[in-house]
Recover the amino acids of this structure.
């Protein structure tokens, strides 16, 4: 197998997560602008006005930036879509992730690089050839097995299938994060029950709820041990990431634009370490155990290997929400940073801060900073704990900013 | 009187309100979000004061809105 540079792509729902992705060692970040993406709710999105800052941040850290523009589009969306593509091009955004032909065609015609979204469900080499007219990077359907992925990447090399740039097509797959119970996200449950279309980015996640199955003719209720009968566990490819890379994929994507910044940093950093280990030939079970332990600390519904290792069904989550082994508790906000003595002043707004607490600071510029509270001062005196409602000073390893949020991490 | 409020910033442009209450709503081709016809804007929130005739259709539109950005009040 020839040595490839594997790109690690991390999600960014806001500037905090974007910074966290960069700190975690991502090669690229992907994000949504306005409402035309699969996380259309405004809280997980940037606006057109943010494009300049995003571009500046990514260029400063030499990270590629991709805009998701992959919902179903209606006529009334076309002019916004064109504006997003044009402004992205103007601000030097690296590519557009698209599924609707309108976006693919328009971005291509403007010379904006296109990535074909997993929403298009690419599952065979002929489809790759079709999209090669428009795009250099393609995300395969999440339902393919490793063998099928490998067949496609080998065929690209053998048949020298090239994209508009003249380079061989690069294949991207999902490596980690939530999985949809429907094929390639094509689910209509949310639309049927709440008028809220998953394909317009507003899935209400019916599949994550509890259900019971009832025979309406005779009124029997079927006994199902697990009531979350439609909720898949989260994808995790760490145990076999060597095989995933060996299948010839060029880009690994981490799902989770709606996730917290510490999730993004932890998962990104773990996959960075895993990719490096595979490439340096030091991948082993001990490392896998350590990595699994790391990603279990942040949001997860339990893990499985997705469809890569064969189409094993029945890997359904048995809980609502997360199985993370740790959780964060909000303590307060940053007030000031004294750079000479490396001390941050914080206002404690809830709970109690104690010496030895594992602390987490997040902010749009700070990203994610984790450290132990070793030295806490109150009114210039060293103390062991600080109650709610006071300002205190904590020794911090790196610069923090006013209005950064302070949390403590505890066992869940 | 009926007061219709549209929290337009969070609109995702699904088109339901236009389908259901066409007399009152249009899709903007500029930004792909819906527009409450004749409404007055204040800090990004659009309000239309109108009569009883608007009630039923707009209540249906509000119910259908997947992101709950339409509010209909009868006073």
């Amino acid at each position: 197998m020839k040595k490839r540079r594997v790109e690690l792509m991390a999600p960014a729902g806001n500037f905090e997560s974007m910074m966290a992705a960069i700190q975690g060692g991502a090669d690229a970040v992907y994000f949504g602008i306005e409402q035309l993406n699969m996380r259309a709710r405004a809280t997980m999105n940037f606006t057109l006005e943010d494009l300049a800052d995003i571009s500046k941040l990514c260029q400063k850290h030499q990270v590629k930036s991709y805009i998701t523009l992959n919902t179903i589009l209606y006529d009334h969306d076309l002019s916004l879509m064109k504006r997003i593509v044009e402004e992205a091009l103007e601000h030097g955004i690296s590519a557009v992730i698209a599924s609707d032909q309108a976006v693919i065609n328009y971005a291509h015609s403007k010379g904006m690089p296109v990535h074909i979204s997993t929403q298009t469900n690419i599952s065979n080499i002929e489809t790759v050839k079709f999209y090669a007219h428009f795009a250099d990077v393609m995300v395969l359907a999440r339902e393919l097995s490793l063998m099928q992925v490998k067949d496609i990447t080998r065929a690209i090399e053998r048949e020298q299938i090239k994209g508009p740039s003249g380079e061989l097509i690069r294949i991207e797959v999902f490596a980690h994060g939530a999985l949809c119970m429907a094929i390639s996200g094509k689910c209509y449950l949310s639309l049927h029950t709440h008028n809220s279309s998953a394909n317009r980015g507003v899935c209400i996640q019916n599949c994550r709820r509890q259900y019971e199955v009832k025979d309406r003719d005779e009124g029997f209720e079927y006994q199902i041990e697990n009531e979350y009968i439609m909720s898949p566990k989260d994808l995790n490819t760490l145990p076999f990431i060597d095989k995933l890379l060996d299948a010839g994929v060029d880009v690994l994507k981490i799902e989770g634009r709606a996730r917290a910044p510490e999730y993004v940093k932890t998962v990104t950093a773990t996959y960075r370490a895993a990719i490096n280990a595979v490439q340096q030939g030091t991948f082993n079970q001990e490392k896998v155990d350590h990595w699994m332990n790391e990603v279990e600390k942040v949001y997860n519904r339990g893990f499985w290997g997705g469809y890569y290792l064969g189409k094993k069904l029945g890997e359904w989550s048995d809980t609502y929400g997360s199985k993370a082994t740790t959780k964060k508790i909000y303590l307060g906000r940053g007030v000031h940073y004294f750079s000479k003595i490396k001390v941050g002043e914080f206002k404690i707004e809830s709970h109690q801060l104690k010496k030895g607490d594992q602390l987490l600071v997040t902010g749009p510029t700070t990203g994610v900073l984790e450290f132990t509270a070793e030295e806490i001062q109150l009114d210039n005196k060293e103390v062991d704990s600080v109650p709610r409602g006071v300002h205190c000073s904590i020794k911090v390893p790196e610069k923090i900013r006013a209005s950064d949020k302070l949390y403590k991490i505890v066992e869940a | 009187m009926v007061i219709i409020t549209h929290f337009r910033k969070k609109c995702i442009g699904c088109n339901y309100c236009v389908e259901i209450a066409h007399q009152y709503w249009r899709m903007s081709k500029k930004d792909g979000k819906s527009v409450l016809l004749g409404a007055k804007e204040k800090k990004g929130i659009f309000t239309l004061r109108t009569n009883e005739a608007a009630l039923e259709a707009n209540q249906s539109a509000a119910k259908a809105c997947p992101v709950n950005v339409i509010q209909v009040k009868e006073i």
In short: Chain B has a mean pLDDT of 95. Chain B has two helices and six strands. The interface with chain A takes residues 9-16, 27-33, 64-67 of chain B (CB under 8 Å). Chain B has one domain: 2-74.
